[in-house]
Amino acid sequence: MSKVLYIKANPKSDADSRTFTISESFIEAYKNLHPNDEIVIIDLYKENIDFLSTESVNMHKLAPGAYHDHPVLKYAYQFVEADKYVFAEPLWNLGIPAILKAYIDYISVTGITFTYTAEGPKGLCSNKKAINITSRGGSYSDGYMATLEMGDKYLRTILGFLGICDFTTIAAEELDVIGTDVEDVLNKAIQQAQQAAATF
Description:
200 residues
């Protein structure tokens, strides 16, 4: 049995979020295909994730294993104990929502999710996999615009730093471009998500 963290980073409801329309379809398909797996939902807005304070930064310096239930460190322990990760967020201003970056700061803790060695930093979350489900108002997959996309690119990089190299992206694009058949774009992304659930 695998433990899946479903990390949601959008203030909108499931019904109003185009990102969640896709990610919820993925989760439902995954549940049907992997009925014995545990899915833990982390809605960052409902969790009231905030920016790190001086106290929180100091907590990061404690020895591994300490303060397992601390309001900040608990997320890092929860993260490293999971097997799979589903991220769901829109592209905002070329990057991820600030609350998701704050969550990344919570889970990136020396001695829990990564460590320093004589050869440099080493991720402690190896042999795990992640999927990022995102929606974008424009097209950022090819050409010049692809160089501006810092959301999925950042998640892929930071998760690789933590040792997670099996990373898949599902992106619904051009949702705010005049003339786009939004329903068609979403339906195609939903189909892709449902297919991905089978091998995730």
